[in-house]
């Protein structure tokens, strides 16, 4: 699949970002440590993984965030510090203490984030040694590279909007390519704005943005132990977001989140197809999502997309096992792009194999399902399942 190059990322007043090479995985010679320094006047909202086996940095970040407004994020790739028990929690604390000592802040003002291999101790000494280098501010672009694991490209977006004649900037970066499923994905995402935003509004904005973006993507149906999405408002611009300006501001944040979420799917491990699944005419949002995710998680459907095989029966079968009560199969319609492939319980009279094959050879494909039982609609984004996905994950630790 064609990958998008990193666009120009706009700086956010009130944030400094530095990176360093700690050689957390000895065979990787690139920056793998990132340090965010945040304005003390800012606010910070967060959403974390719902995986019960959440990683040590997630546990500690939640604790620190509940007690104060953060001043620093320390982020490492190459090691998830998950499944490491109490020693792993101590490792995360030691990393926060190292930042606090260097910068003269309280330990709980530092939030840790990790991504990489599960079940291995974090090399704290390497991180301590590299931290002074990360104090040199390099900016968003280097950070987008430094947080990568199996990603093939960095992911970042910026947008500027006008609120009451004044410019508000929003910039975000994210990482993730596999173990991606809602609640959230296997990802880290950091979004920031120079506007001043009260914490309740900021948290509500992030919740809504995540619902429409990171919680609407799936690669393989696996939910990570380390997911975190942070939204920081530095308050260093000249705009304060009150209720009257909330909607355009939240739309800008959501725009960034959607672009980042879609970039994760486009860069999914081994992916060759970007697939939009839209389920319409549902009786509820939840049943639309149930149908969409059953299709998106079906290995048979995903491998058919990889082979460019218009095997529409696999989609039909997935709909039938999605658990929709009292589904009238004669009311269901299935479309590949603009081509109706199934209706009235079977193949559409106008459908030809050549039409379906033409759509399946495209790299971006839309699947529309009309359930014929209501007015609700949901859209998710996913990808195909290729040989390379198996190879990448089979060789992940080797």
What's the layout of helices and strands?
Blueprint: E1 15-20, E2 33-38, E3 43-48, H1 56-67, E4 72-79, H2 85-103, E5 110-117, H3 124-134, H4 140-146, E6 155-163, E7 166-175, E8 188-193, H5 199-211, E9 228-233, H6 243-266, E10 274-282, H7 285-297, H8 299-306, H9 312-320, E11 333-336, E12 339-343, E13 346-347, H10 353-360, E14 364-370, E15 376-383, H11 387-394
Parallel strand pairs: 4-5, 8-9, 10-14
Antiparallel strand pairs: 1-2, 2-4, 3-9, 6-7, 7-8, 10-15, 11-12, 11-14, 12-13
Helix pairs in contact: 1-2, 2-3, 5-6, 7-9
Task: Give a short synopsis of this structure.
By secondary structure, the chain is an alpha+beta fold. It has eleven helices and 15 strands.
